[in-house]
Design goal:
InterPro entries: H-NOX_domain_sf (IPR038158), Heme_NO-bd (IPR011644), NO_sig/Golgi_transp_ligand-bd (IPR024096). With 180 residues, the protein is of the alpha+beta class. It has 8 helices and 4 strands; from the N terminus they run H-H-H-H-H-H-H-E-E-H-E-E. It has a 4-stranded antiparallel β-sheet.
């Protein structure tokens, strides 16, 4: 998993829960990287799982809710670090429609070792989109947060529902309807 995801995560933990919580989740982790991350590095996905599990124990907030909150936080981080990737879009549904064929293709050029999910579009109209998230990492709540923030980015909101097609969250169908 890319370093930018880790550095954004640590930034979120510090700003939402404080430096002491951040220290605690790194310390009690016995992490391979010893809790040292750079935005240009790449780290084992299991290390992110450990950090989130530690944060959940520390804050008593369920892991899924923390991953969703991180998705909300991460969108701005990605958009600010890579403005060229999203500047081509002027609607949230247009952006979502292009994650698979444009956005993540571009990301793969920036970071050849990026491990990205796939999004299969099932249906799209002017105000809604249905798509299936697939990834061995099962980070569908991260996708949920990112999608919600994409609407906010364009000054809009949406009603987002999802259905686990596989119990472990590696395949999840999203139904997204733009409000208003
Ligand atoms: Mn994208 C990882 C969904 C927009 C760059 N992205 C992920 C993951 C999800 C995801 C979920 C976690 C990996 C996984 O599940 O297997 N991404 C989205 C969604 C949107 C999105 C739903 C839009 C909404 N992503 C973007 C944009 C950028 C970007 C915009 C860049 C400007 N994504 C990334 C990077 C990773 C990632 C970088 C991390 C890959 C890695 O760690 O190897």
């Amino acid at each position: 998993m890319k370093g930018i995801v880790f550095t954004e995560f640590l930034e979120m933990v510090e700003s939402k829960f404080g430096l002491e919580t951040l220290d605690n989740i790194i310390e009690n982790g016995h992490l391979p990287s010893e809790g040292v991350y750079t935005s240009v590095g790449t780290y084992d996905f299991n290390e992110m799982v450990t950090l989130i599990t530690n944060l959940s124990e520390e804050t008593k907030i369920p892991v899924g809710d923390l991953i969703y909150a991180f998705g909300l936080y991460l969108f701005s981080g990605l958009a600010n670090s890579h403005p060229e990737v999203i500047k081509n879009y002027n609607t949230p549904l247009g952006l979502l429609y292009c994650i698979e064929d444009h956005i993540h293709v571009h990301v793969k050029k920036l970071y050849p070792d990026a491990e990205l999910p796939t999004f299969k579009i099932l249906d799209k109209t002017d105000d809604k989109i249905s798509m299936v998230y697939s990834s061995s990492r099962g980070l569908y709540r991260l996708a949920h947060g990112l999608i919600e923030k994409a609407f906010e980015h364009f000054g809009s909101t949406a009603t987002i529902t999802y259905d686990l097609l596989k119990e472990d969250g590696t395949e999840v169908k999203f139904d997204i309807v733009q409000n208003g």
